[in-house]
Amino acid sequence: MPEQPGTPCGGPTSACAAVSRRGFLAASAAAGAGAATLATQAVASSAAGDAAAQPAAPGATTVQMTVNGAGRSLTLDPCVTLLDALRDQLDLTGSKKGCDHGQCGACTVLVNGRRINSCLTLAVMHEGDSITTIEGLGTPEALHPMQAAFVRHDGFQCGFCTPGQICSSVAMLQEIRQGVPSHATADLMQVRFSDAEVRERMAGNLCRCAAYPNIVAAIRDAAGART
């Protein structure tokens, strides 16, 4: 049968015969650019709408706590850990997210004076609690005695674990003063400071730079037990 006018690309009388290869490519490029522009505008419009229409996540709750001596009110998802709340909502980034499994101690903070791994506890569990992070222990102008001891004894190298080490050290000395025994305590009725006690009690705070001898020396210094 003879080719009918307007049929696609069948011969010299087809509609495609009138379109050059260059013209076809130019038209295709223009169509693609137009589609991409429309898609970008749609995404941007959707994102702007989402940002304006998200006052709080569904199920969010408000928690009142004292952080470094100041009352704070946080509205957050019940699944947010204390570590993430401190870092992401309060910008207290001294507490580090090391393993996020409670195995390295880099996230150690003090809750009502006791040390905990903040990555293993939910922020909503600390309604009314007093939280102390490394930022609340001292300042560059007025270091906490433990911070000053770590500086004197080079108790850090990369420094990533240091905030957790210092917070843990402060609480650990308080445990010894209160007579709380450890696995290294020989006489449960006479809990005394010793390097062995320090090493045992600080076993949950890992230092990948292996500055352990200097850390023990710094804690001994801060405890007033220089030997």
TrEMBL record:
KW Plastid (keyword) present: no
InterPro entries: 2Fe-2S-bd, 2Fe-2S-bd_dom_sf, 2Fe-2S_ferredoxin-like_sf, 2Fe-2S_ferredoxin-type, 2Fe2S_fd_BS, Aldehyde_Oxdr_Iron-Sulfur, Beta-grasp_dom_sf, TAT_signal
Signal peptide: none
CDD domains named in the record: fer2
GO cellular component terms, semicolon-separated: periplasmic space
Pfam families per UniProt: Fer2, Fer2_2
Record's protein name: Xanthine dehydrogenase YagT iron-sulfur-binding subunit
